[in-house]
């Protein structure tokens, strides 16, 4: 195995020797190139002679990097795929009282908030007492400490688990707090809506995901019955901040596994918010589109916060006004009036905050601002009274989007409410939750082409996971009724409904190696986004077979460059 830390691996890699005698003949099975700073290992399969008197007489070979098997090495931090902290070839790691150092190159994910770390529980010594993990950003020199002080073990410790989540401590400040999630699951009021299957879900928010949550212990003895509301409690779990989506599924077990889900409400006790995820769909193999997994975006209405800053260059100490009217104009709707009752002192240099309940008004294009005496009373003062507004910031409290209006204008006190000034939006800051919640379900066409060599087809169960810039699809079964799929030289087409994934980055295709002839030669995978019409090709040309090649039954495929 070759290790490189400073040289970028290019599209090709060559290996060979300069020997000319029979003693220098070399039968090369495979070789690996490790790039620690990238966190990957590339494995190239050769299985041929490098010799002048054997095979084809060549003493060197050239390999394309696209033909290599790529394995990640590292660990998982929020927003990142799992990394494996590989064992060292020349020394032992994770020994008692020992500090182990790893260098990884990962995308900038801002200040760390939490880490999820796990072991696979294998080996002669699977139990591990983890004290602490320290992560240092070599660019910013920021240091994050993750303290656990417990076992990752199925037989020792308090938790009896192989996986844990640890909050980051930066500059003596805990970056994430614990909360209790109260999850209410409403089964629809239609015939056969209930399920006997086991249901699980994952929640996504600003601070990453919750991991898999099994919905086992409900307030009802018989869960997920028709028109029933089941309540589940998950205490002492890291708060995810504003929630954006959930993925919910069942294992299709039991006498009546089909399930019609109406909605999910999730309450975060830390921030005292409830997030709704509307479904109104079947999770059943014999209903709707045959899927038993759904991704749901958050469907909360918005609460608006209006923050006004009065200029400091006013000659008056303050302006007393009994009504401030703010009209919001969107790109698709008419003006909407929001009034603030009561008397408010607009003090020089002060920032005033007002909150309103409102329906969703979409993106705000402009606002109209004015003020008048209480109840429309006539003005007593002969002199004009002005209110100098420096800036107005409108915040959607549920989504966190902020709209900035640079006013720097004097607004006169008027007897009529219809007198106002118009200010256009100067800047918009879209929150993470808003971006995620704006995702809509998209129908993806998945085409799988099986190779044409002898015995290329498979009888095993095939699954696919699609990864994009907006997340992943989760593991999806590729299945059709009354069809013999994945036969030699065949092209099979499937349709999956998934929340918009953005630009596709990779796919993972795998089978469970079941039945008589599980070995499978995958030629390629093509995925088309029906909303945009964009097709992404993922070449493969490799066996998924325990008895051939590298004996893997899964492949991670990347788009054709």
Automatic annotation (TrEMBL):
A Pfam family matched in the record: PLAT
Annotated region described as Disordered, given as residue ranges: 1-21
Domain of life: Eukaryota
Database matches in SUPFAM superfamilies: Lipase/lipooxygenase domain (PLAT/LH2 domain)
InterPro entries reported in the protein's UniProt record: Inner_ear_hair_cell_LOXHD, PLAT/LH2_dom, PLAT/LH2_dom_sf
Chain ranges of the PLAT domain: 29-166, 179-297, 442-558
PANTHER family cross-referenced by the UniProt entry: LIPOXYGENASE HOMOLOGY DOMAIN-CONTAINING PROTEIN 1, PROTEIN CBG12474
Name of the protein in question: Lipoxygenase homology domain-containing protein 1
Gene name of the record: LOXHD1
